[in-house]
């Protein structure tokens, strides 16, 4: 009983010692509450476990964000119906030199519904400002509108050569012309004109278009390319070959000639009572010099 007995029991709280007689006995007191350090450590482990669970969450469990469709802002485009008609090649230039006669080239036909055709090429066209875009034009590219849309010029490089190709409008909107025929009760016929200028007047050398207007005034009815048969005579043909429709009978028209630098009247065309295709000669009553146009 008097032997020295030591019980070094150490806890996180501490050690208590009691001396009984000659002997000293050591004992520990069991804490009534869990150690604070363990409690904090336990919370830390729980937090780590929760974070791990969040990281293991499958992508499909996350809230899906709705993807909104984005649309590009459309460019301003002009009304294509006002450009509808047939455009014939007027001039062709290659690298500053002559390109030869292009007036037998296939016409560029623009429809009021935005479709176009050029020989075997067909597609859609649009206009932005003074630029015309042809959807299937791979070589010529876009064209430039001149003189309020009466001319379309293409400039492009091909096989090392610079090309400038200009088309001239020679007929108006076919749909509008057919509507006019139904209203007026007339019919469309082909008209060939021979315009003879006064002696000494060489206007035939510069005239390249003939345009027809209603006598009472209004927008042009038709336009076609003109050819000089001699220095005093211009010949022009208003055909009915699609997409052109000829001229509507039962009306009187003003006949205007142009050179690209001006336009002037040379006479009138009377189609009252006409029932079939006609050929007429017009003696020019007003020359370019006397009209004041240069």
Automatic annotation (TrEMBL):
Compositional bias (Basic and acidic residues): 36-46
Region Disordered, residue ranges: 33-60
Species for this entry: Candidatus Lloydbacteria bacterium RIFCSPHIGHO2_02_FULL_50_13
Protein name: Uncharacterized protein
Key words of the record: Membrane, Transmembrane, Transmembrane helix
Ranges that cross the membrane: 7-27
């Amino acid at each position: 009983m008097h032997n020295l007995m030591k019980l070094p029991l150490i806890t996180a709280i501490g050690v208590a010692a009691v001396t009984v007689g000659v002997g000293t006995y050591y004992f520990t007191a069991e804490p009534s509450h869990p150690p604070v350090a363990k409690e904090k450590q336990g919370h830390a482990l729980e937090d780590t476990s929760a974070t791990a669970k969040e990281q293991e969450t499958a992508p499909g469990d996350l809230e899906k964000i709705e993807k909104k469709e984005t649309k590009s802002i459309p460019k301003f485009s002009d009304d294509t119906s006002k450009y509808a008609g047939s455009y014939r090649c007027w001039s062709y230039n290659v690298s500053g030199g002559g390109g030869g006669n292009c007036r037998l080239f296939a016409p560029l036909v623009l429809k009021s519904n935005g479709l176009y055709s050029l020989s075997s090429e067909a597609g859609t066209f649009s206009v932005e400002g003074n630029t015309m875009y042809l959807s299937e034009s791979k070589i010529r590219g876009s064209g430039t509108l001149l003189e309020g849309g009466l001319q379309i010029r293409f400039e492009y490089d091909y096989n090392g050569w610079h090309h400038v190709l200009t088309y001239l409008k020679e007929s108006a909107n076919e749909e509008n012309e057919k509507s006019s025929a139904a209203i007026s009760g007339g019919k469309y016929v082909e008209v060939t004109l021979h315009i003879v200028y006064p002696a000494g007047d060489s206007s035939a050398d510069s005239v390249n278009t003939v345009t027809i207007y209603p006598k009472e005034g209004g927008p042009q009815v038709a336009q076609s390319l003109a050819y000089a048969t001699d220095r005093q005579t211009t010949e022009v043909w208003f055909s009915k070959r699609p997409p052109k429709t000829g001229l509507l009978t039962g009306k009187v028209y003003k006949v205007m000639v142009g050179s690209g630098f001006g336009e002037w009247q040379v006479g009138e065309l009377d189609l009252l009572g006409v029932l079939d295709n006609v050929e007429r000669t017009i003696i020019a009553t007003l020359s370019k010099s006397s009209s004041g146009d240069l």
